[in-house]
Amino acid sequence: MKRLIELKRKLSARAGPRWxxxxxxxxxxxxxxxxxxxxxxxxxxxxxxxxxxxxxxTIRAGGWPLWNPLVGMGAPLLANYQSALFYPxxxxxxxxxxxxxxxxxxxxxxxxxxxxxxxxxWGMGLLIKRLGKSExxxxxxxxxxxxxxxxxxRAHFLSINAAVxxxxxxxxxxxxLAREPRRAGSILLLALVLAMQWLAGxxxxxxxxxxxxxxxxxxxxxxxxxGRHLWRAALAFAAAGLLAFALSAxxxxxxxxxxxxxxxxxxxxxxxxxxxxxxxxxxxxxxAPNFFGNPAAGNYWGYGNYWEDAIYIGILxxxxxxxxxxxxxxREKERSLLLFLxxxxxxxxxxxxxxxxxxxxxxxxxxxxxxxxQSPTRISIWLVFAFALLAAIGVDAWRRxxxxxxxxxxxxxxxxxxxxxxxxxxxxxQAPDGIAGADTFAWGALSMGIVLVGAAIxxxxxxxxxxxKDQRWGWLICLLAVDLLYAGWGLNPGASLDLYNEDPSSxxxxxxxxxxxxxxxxxxxxxxxxYERLFRFDAFASVDPSEIRSSLLPNxxxxxxxxxxxxxxxxxxARYQDWMDVLQAVSPIDQALMLQRMGVTWVALxxxxxxxxxxxxxxxxxxxxWLSCSDVVxxxxxxxxxxxxxxxxxxxxIEAIDANAERLCRLPSLSGAAALVxxxxxxxxxxPIDSPTGGWLMLSDTWYPGWRAFANGxxxxxxxxxxxxxxxxxxxxxxxxxxVYQPLSFELGLVISAAAWLSVGLFWLWxxxxxxxxxxxxxxAIL
Length: 783
Prior knowledge:
By secondary structure, the chain is of the alpha+beta class.
């Protein structure tokens, strides 16, 4: 009998409300993964799946996924930070591609997204547990964080979804380190979780997390032992950061090289940096998430897009958090933590306002790092974390009202009921003319009123004393998950797996139209197609997802192996960006000449009812050509100025500072004949060539550090040609010319990371062996 009672107790403990942290995200994404669909809206179809599919194609061919030849006339793939190819969960996608191709890979997105949301919630729950709070507090805080508008509305942005899931784990490890900075295990744990987030692929969220972790560590270290303890914690944190860098160097070093050679090498301008500043009116959605509509319902009409300003954590957690801030002075034991969280939340919100206050502009001008990123509203992750933790603390402090508080609590029930009744009546009335969004106001107020009624009634059923356990009340509290699921429902829509068919017959005509060349969208046409037709911010269901694949919108054409002159990567080579900016600014005649040099055969035009390609197969330059050069210049800008002002169809200009290159450039004009090009792999281009007189060969692929050229095994210098492309000089003879991408940054990062992971593994085994020796003696442990 005792055993049965003990077994029942254990099962009851294991089946506690905390398991909602794992189950709720899968319920939220069930309309996608359970229905056999795939995420598609926005970046899943235009970035992540094309990147990972191209990476898998390269790996299957036997190479490292270092270069992407299908976008922007070639661009780094692995160094593209958001591709996150060395982030372990990304390998799930690659494994699914190996097992079931493109469609299985695409289907797996919803599963991995749900796993990351569950991981975020579980980590938040463990952090709250480490702070000494109850299981109910862990559940409330974990749900408020993992199902918050910030995480759920952005879940389709897969690198944000992956990076933010590690935030509570980093803060948990930082808490342990702050308390015990001398423990090697604390340093190792923090290094591991930092490395995982740095490999996850979103620099902005990783940077905001690091800043928060530093403040969090300093707070707890100061609380534990003042100055001397703080210095020990600071040194331990620095050691963990260095180890984390070593563990993730295989990604960070190539990305650092790319950043230095990208359009973001210099700071972005203030207008760009302040894009997606928090719209102050969206603060109302902290109580009513759909007050300005919802793109899942097709009626969003607020400023910008829905997800950037999404901060909803649930009405009940919000009220609990505010309550803790109001009563912070009365809570001597937790006063400093409550004030710290309140300050963090306030700072976060003020910065998130971006261009709406002078604060962000001052930070942009004077504080490093604020000029590197756009979307200041993303720093509101601090606010979401702080209020979720405040809500968890509030759960354990919640007591049934008595006396005058009971009177006001009953009045709150009546007020909430009145709001609900009035809002329900408003949904039946016709919206007055001239009042935009009046219908969304009514529906938003109705959902708010219903939850407020439930919260007010729960308040009347709260525990009377600390330690009192009422499981029914606890489970009712966890019904806040329903509120959060309702708010996030449909924000990550799914499409039929037909969208990700590996070889759709409908693309055959487009492949034939493009031929051996590249596609191109003018900037205005690309924007109109992307944001006014296929991916409208106000309504997810505004277009049939099947139209997306046939649009050849960058980078969707990668799924069909169709090269694009456009590039929708977050980082692009600076030379490429400068070229594209000039292309948009020159006359139509000069545009046509530049497009010829880019090898473009298919230009997208905006038709009245559909998008169509303008095909002119005869007027484009082959990918590899013999050309004389008209001059030698020293800078990319001089080369670009020449290209923009001259007919470059029969001449070229190279960048060189050595005398030999200038002498070679002065040779007589050569034939403009084309050379055949083959590509054994993404990182390897072969050009068989017969050079009876010697001369220059130009390849209309992007010049980038790490590309090397070999003619019959002898290495040649690869010069930038026409500011963007690659060129080599060949003496008379017959050659097999090979361009090979071998970036030193990748090799260096791979060696550092391999050594770091090996060291960590050996250190862990050493710790485990010491533990065994202490517990069981040397002979027993070894045997």
